[in-house]
């Protein structure tokens, strides 16, 4: 059985969503933005090119070597076996991106991941096609699968917004909010969301916003986001802070804080506490959110409100 | 030029499944094939022969064809059998059914005492606690067997494990905070020892002897499977969902090619982790590696899960107990894509659909694919297809589909279907064999061994009598006659495999494959059909007595 790793458990980002919603596009963005972080991308099958050809260094059966030290593996029905074997086979891997099949329920996949002590679920991202998702949700065969996928999301990426007029986009976003009341919903085009939302925030550094991968004609994804970095007093209750930052209203899409050898990871409505990597700077919180949605005061208040009771009263 | 020797078998009665000559007393065999069936005078016209009287007091049928089984039944007999009902192992020993949880524990204790090392794992299979009342099996039960070795027992359904504390420790699950729908927790906040669903099962599987390597490419298992076939009169059996990696194919070709191997194995490539293009391409290549006793080149597809596991996809109004609808295992785009391509390349596809919504989806996908790629004789088959209604059978007939239904479910889980999963009305129409035949749908019936025991005559008994374990009869209007049932376990199943020109009936030119019976299935009372005694088989003209395998 895989043991807990010294640097904490391996974070797993689960990417769900029906066929054609842009999961593969997103995965390729993440691989291009990995910037030295060694990702293992697990896909259900090596279907219609899971990874852009120019990223592939070599191929060996079920594993593709990707430039920058990343790998891509297909798991078929052997997801658990693949996950159990990975830490030993590839001890260099720092993060797992798990692309589920189109009809899989990402919440179920994530709860399976929690059974493996070597891993922690970092976040569940569910991609939808903003143009078709509501029709899909009415489909007699697939409707409940789509809404169950959404119900488990921490972040919903409403992709292909460029194909939808403003009025219907507004309606679709409002509808998505009813399906995933606690999730954060991100409108996007060509799956262009800030990779740091999924790949994690560098310790005590500003988020590495995607600056080089703008698609011609589309707004630079980086310009859509804002980030904050603030000091956190040592007497903050980290669980309380996690609850507050992941609650609706703060505009926080992702946050990472290091405090007293613990690391807080927030992705949308989910937060996890893990041991901090060695040498990480304590007392810092980095937050990323949608520009104009991220509320600095709300974040500061969340920190204040999380001070342990004795001090707050004193 | 000398021609090969001719053997003429004399039998008490030969049931041929050929309507032009439904029964006879003699069958002539040359080169492993049937030269003719009829009176001795007719057959003597073929030339010099040896008259073989071995079967003078026996009844011959075409070798039985099991259209949905898994060679894994042979593998499972390496574990301790703990099912509720008596079951015969490949060596012919009947393991009595366990009547209580106490009985299960006692048996494990008996096996445990014989194990040398204190850490050697102990694995069992076939457990079915629904017969033991409401009490669940928990880890404390198996801790009474051992606390030092891992113990794991797979349920009859194949969808659940029960394990002891040691197995949970080894799997890293003996901790508070486990939060998974397939892992119930006790009042102490720790797992009870029950693990449901493939993910939870995989984590403990390797620690209790059910690791993937043990189950794949199992040469001994393939040999044991053949012995079971002989004991049940089976001469052609499917191995319906294999990943067929190269080394497994080589092993299977070698073993089935041995002079004494008694069964024709039809192994389907499971559609998984590949695109439709990749799997069809693979099937075409596999087909070229087929031999007489190893048939390859067909594809098995999973559309949904199981009814008793609540993972089958049901149409409105869903499960009787209100459980949420089940899971799709393959997206409709992939199903349609696979169907279209397979039709184009002439590759046979069998699709697992348990729930009626899954059946509907498969029908829709095939209907669309046939518009793009018309095919006259595809024989695409719905496997299980347990909840299909009359309208769906009519559609199947129109689309040229076959159905391979699962009447064994009535006996093993019919009461549970009646009371919990689908409710009385749908439990009565489940596995609607009579409707299928009346609608003109080519019909086979199956055991899904190892889920239920391999034994086409038992399956036929289930289709004829529709009796549950508690004695309830589920839907007499869907019961079929013994004659129809016998046809489904021979020609019917052969048709779904596109082998009906070679096997499934006793007539000139076909393989000399016979089920050799001590009792006449047409004479015995229909409710005793399962008790017909089986001498063994003749396969390709070779004699395989059950007591000599």
How would you sum up this structure, described in words?
Chain A is built from ten helices and 14 strands. Chain A has helices spanning 23-33, 79-89, 106-113, 133-137, 143-151, 166-179, 196-199, 238-246, 296-305, 309-313, and strands at residues 10-17, 39-43, 56-60, 63-66, 70-74, 95-99, 119-129, 155-159, 184-187, 225-231, 252-259, 262-267, 270-275, 284-290. A nine-stranded mixed beta sheet of chain A has the order 3-4-5-2-6-1-7-8-9, sandwiched between helices. In chain A, strands 10-14-11-12-13 form a five-stranded antiparallel beta sheet. Chain B has two domains: 80-208, Diaminopimelate Epimerase, Chain A, domain 1 (Roll); 215-539, TIM Barrel (Alpha-Beta Barrel). Chain B has 18 helices and 23 strands. Chains A and B meet through helix 2 and helix 3 of A and helix 6 and helix 12 of B. Chain A: It comes from Reyranella aquatilis. Chain A: Residues 210-307 form the CobW C-terminal domain.
Key terms for this structure?
heterodimer; A: 314 residues; alpha/beta; Rossmann fold; Hypothetical Protein Yjia, Chain: A,domain 2; 2 domains; nine-stranded mixed β-sheet; five-stranded antiparallel β-sheet; 27% helix; B: 549 residues; Diaminopimelate Epimerase, Chain A, domain 1; eight-stranded mixed β-sheet; 18 helices; 23 strands; Zinc-reg_GTPase_activator (chain A); CobW-like_C (chain A); CobW/HypB/UreG_nucleotide-bd (chain A); GTP-binding protein (chain A); Metal-dep_hydrolase_composite (chain B)
How much strand of chain B? Answer: 15-25%
Quick check: average pLDDT of chain B? 96
Estimated share of beta-strand residues of chain A: 25-35%
Helix-strand makeup class of chain B: alpha/beta
How many β-strands of chain A, per DSSP?
14
What multimeric state do the chains show? heterodimer
CATH architecture of the largest domain in chain A: 3-Layer(aba) Sandwich
Radius of gyration of chain A: 19 Å
Shape of chain A: globular
What is the CATH topology of the largest domain in chain B? TIM Barrel
Helix content of chain A: 25-40%
The CATH topology of the largest domain in chain A turns out to be Rossmann fold
Total tally of structural domains of chain B: 2
- Biggest interface in this structure? A-B, 34 and 33 residues
- CATH class group of the largest domain in chain B: Alpha Beta
Q: What would you call the structural class of chain A?
A: alpha/beta
The total of beta strands of chain B comes to 23
Q: Which CATH class of the largest domain in chain A is shown? A: Alpha Beta
Q: Under the CATH scheme, which architecture of the largest domain in chain B would be assigned?
A: Alpha-Beta Barrel
Protein name (chain B): Amidohydrolase
Domain Amidohydrolase (chain B): 57-542
InterPro entries (chain B): Amidohydro_3 (IPR013108), Metal-dep_hydrolase_composite (IPR011059), Metal_Hydrolase (IPR032466), YtcJ-like (IPR033932)
Organism (chain B): Reyranella aquatilis
